[in-house]
């Protein structure tokens, strides 16, 4: 299977960031550098910082970016550490930030990572396999019924969360659930026949929920946004965030609205001016065009929001 990662909403992101040739840019989700390579092409007098915790992605991205220029640095880290990363490099302000919260295509297509329901592999799903002790296998074999139901509903919008959780509990009493295909079979048994006939894989929502729980993605997103916003340079610096899950989009929407509506917000950001310091560039969320949907089905659930510091 082709593991080439197609960057989602690429044109919309590049246009939305309003890139300056001498600007400083941060890609918090470097992946295979699909977006970053296009940013780097436009900042031959600027600098790019790329953040990722996947060593394989870092190696591939480095090769790709060095063919364009050498005015970049890749940092192996979770983007929740961005405040310390920038401060340790004496970076006071940046001109643009990107967050693409989708899992890259190679992570899905390379079965041994456990992200995909299309390959039989150990239930892993960790973005950072070196430092994160929590795996999907540990979750399905140790979480209580109520905990499983909660994450399947909250993070996967799974209608049959109770049935799936119940069958997981029953199955693991006989022996541990260790592989993706074992979990897929449990999910299929937990849904009525009419559901299995619908378009789309029946395990999609559960696998998404497990991935979010394994990597604590929603809490990490919330803290990272609060930490990075004060680094946006006054006078037009922008942050572009692409989400793929309703829970992610709600967090981004809420924070963007709060900070752009009033100064007295609940984010503990250092804002003293009586004027609105941030504005939402697009009040209506940006989604993929019909043309992009035809060539990249993973863009179907993508939502882009852009915020500017004035």
User: First CA to last CA: what distance?
Assistant: 45 Å
Low-confidence stretches: 262-266
Overall CATH class of the largest domain: Alpha Beta
For the record, the CATH architecture of the largest domain stands as 3-Layer(aba) Sandwich
Number of structural units classed as domains: 2
Looking at the structure, the CATH topology of the largest domain is Rossmann fold
Helical/strand content category: alpha/beta
Element string (H = helix, E = strand): HEHEHEHEHHHHHHHHEHEHE
Helix content: 40-55%
Strand content: 5-15%
Number of helices: 14
Spatial sequence of strands, sheet with the most strands: 3-2-1-4-5-7-6
Q: What is the gyration radius calculated from CA atoms?
A: 20 Å
Mean pLDDT comes to 91
Tally of DSSP β-strands = 7
What is the fourth-level CATH superfamily of the largest domain?
Answer: Vaccinia Virus protein VP39
Broad shape: globular
Q: Tell me the major beta sheet.
A: 7 strands, mixed
């Amino acid at each position: 299977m082709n593991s080439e990662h197609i960057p989602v909403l690429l044109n919309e992101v590049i246009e939305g960031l309003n890139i300056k040739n001498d600007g400083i840019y941060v890609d918090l989700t470097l992946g295979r550098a699909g977006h970053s390579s296009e940013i780097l092409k436009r900042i031959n007098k600027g600098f790019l910082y790329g953040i990722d915790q996947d060593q394989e992605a870092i190696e591939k991205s480095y090769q790709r970016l060095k063919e364009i220029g050498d005015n970049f640095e890749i940092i192996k880290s979770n983007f929740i550490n961005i405040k310390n990363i920038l401060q340790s490099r004496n970076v006071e302000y940046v001109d643009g930030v990107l967050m693409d919260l989708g899992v890259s295509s190679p992570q899905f297509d390379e079965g041994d990572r456990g992200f995909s329901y299309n390959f039989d592999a150990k239930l892993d799903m960790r973005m950072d396999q070196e430092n994160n002790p929590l795996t999907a296998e540990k979750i399905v074999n140790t979480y209580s019924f109520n905990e499983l139901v909660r994450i399947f509903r909250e993070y996967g919008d799974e209608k049959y969360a109770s049935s799936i959780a119940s069958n997981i509990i029953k199955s693991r009493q006989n022996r541990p659930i260790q592989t993706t295909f074992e979990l897929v079979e449990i999910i299929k048994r937990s849904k009525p026949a009419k559901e299995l006939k619908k378009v789309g894989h029946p395990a999609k929502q559960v696998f998404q929920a497990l991935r979010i729980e394994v990597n604590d993605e929603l809490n990490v997103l919330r803290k990272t946004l609060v930490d990075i916003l004060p680094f946006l340079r006054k006078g037009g610096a922008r942050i572009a965030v692409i989400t793929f899950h309703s829970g992610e989009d709600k967090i981004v929407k809420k924070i963007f609205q709060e900070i752009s509506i009033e100064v007295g917000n609940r984010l503990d950001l250092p804002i003293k001016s009586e004027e609105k310091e941030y504005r939402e560039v697009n009040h209506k969320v940006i989604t993929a065009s019909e043309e992009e949907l035809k060539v990249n089905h993973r863009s179907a659930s993508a939502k882009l929001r852009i915020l500017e510091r004035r």
